[in-house]
Amino acid sequence: MSVWLIQHRAALAGVLRHFARTPFASLLTALVIGVALSLPAGLYSLLVNIQGLANHAQGEPLITVVLTATANAEAINDLQAKLRKREDIAEFTFIPRDQALQELNRSAGVGDVTAGLDKNPLPDVITVRPASTDAPAITKLGEELRKLPKVETVLLDEAWVKRLHAMLQLGREGVTLLAVLLGFALVVIIGNTIRLQILSQREEIEVSSLIGATDAFVRRPFLYHGAIQGGAGGAIAWLVVAGAFRLLNDAITRLAALYDLNFQLALPATPDILALLLFATVLGWMGAYLAVGRHLREIFS
Amino acid sequence: MIAFSQVSKRYPGGYEALRDLTFSIEPGEMVCVTGHSGAGKSTLLKLVAAIETPSNGSVVVNGQNIGQIRRSAIPFLRRNIGLIFQDHKLLYNRTAYENVLLPLHIAGFDPAESAKRVRAALDKVGLLDREKSFPVALSGGEQQRLCIARAIVNRPSILLADEPTGNLDANYAHDILEMFKSFNQVGVTIVIATPDPQTARDLNARLLTLDHGKLAS
């Protein structure tokens, strides 16, 4: 076995022995890291869930084309012929004013009110499903439909989706900022743990250096220590998020049902979990690296 | 092997520990550096081990100029030097075996080879039956012998000992000096810092006497 592997294996074994000797303190540090990381990790997972909901909403955009009261059957047929030729329209449905009134009476229970009217106040409409789900393309299509003959007005329903996406973008940036801040906190927490480790092993470090230990040899166990504690913190953060989602899911399902939605918080996907673990491990390693570098300079100065 | 050329060492604050030292020590030679307290004996050893760098002049050890050596090369130079300290510098949370194993672990020796060498070194200093003992359970003389075992386990070409018998009674001191003789007989260069010139005579070693940082003889 190569010298490099022997020394890495020994350093790793030494760190694991240290964790075994001090399980409570090690677990406490990992818990602090885990709780700190669970906040951005949980918010990120929540945003992913809301993003999925928004994508679903955006997947069915509809344009309602309201026709003028003077549009006769011939004009409506001409208009439908023009719509059929457009490649930016996936499908459309003509809803005559009488059918619209019947549906209104049926769904809203306003039969008594409409029965008292002299004539049907509703216009003929055509609902259009665009071929593209891209917001600018839908807006352009709406503007072109508005210019067609016998079209009174065009109603686009993408505005709320735009607002939702703007809010999601804001949320993503907020989560990124939070992750950076808490990542910094994690580096400080790990750095402080490593500082205490270095102080308790100062004599060993000095003796090792005097008998030929390289900086890498001295630094190695501390880097493993930081990386393992960071990774353990990441795993705890995932457990916290998974537990919280499980606790909240019943209430969220009931709330969604009130809005005719079938929605549940989904746990983070495997790549996201791996990214969280990697992120936490790298931060732990980084915290240890910075702390070791600074304190070794102090010891040997 | 060890060459000092017009070496001075001035510490921050202006204290000059060594002044214009020029001498050389040949491979396999045994040298005792004597002088009063503060004469510069320990500083001289620290220069050889690259723990300090000279303020002026050059110190060459095993062909490497200590004043110009890269920081990353120092550990490899030290692996060829056995250091014996008056205060032992043992790790008290490790057994005698683990203390002696440390230099081999640092150098990346194979575990089986390491075990063989550690037991040989402990046997050489008469501590094989105490390999599982922690240093605190050893007497002063045994701790010093353990420190020697750690210094020789890597089979260094140079042994530096800073007042190795300073805290020991006459019997223990005699044993330690006999060990240095036996190491020297197999070609190890030995430099011992001691305030007692009699030690040099007992060892039949060359004597370098320092007086306020200057070479007196």
Detailed description of the structure:
The complex is a heterodimer of chains A (301) and B (217). By secondary structure, chain A is an alpha+beta fold. Helix content of chain A is 74%, strand content 8%. In chain A, strands 2-3-1-4 form a four-stranded antiparallel β-sheet. Chain A is elongated. Chain B is an alpha/beta fold. In chain B, 35% of the residues lie in helices and 25% in strands. In chain B, strand 7 (158-162), helix 6 (170-185) and strand 8 (189-193) form a beta-alpha-beta unit. In chain B, helix 3 (96-107) crosses helix 4 (111-124), helix 3 (96-107) packs parallel to helix 5 (140-152) and helix 4 crosses helix 5. Chains A and B meet through helix 1 and helix 8 of A and helix 2 and helix 3 of B.
Quick summary of this structure?
The complex is a heterodimer of chains A (301) and B (217). Chain A is α+β, with helices and mostly antiparallel strands and 301 residues long. Chain A has helices at residues 3-21, 23-58, 73-85, 97-108, 111-115, 135-146, 159-200, 202-210, 215-258, 270-300, and strands spanning 63-67, 89-95, 125-130, 151-156.
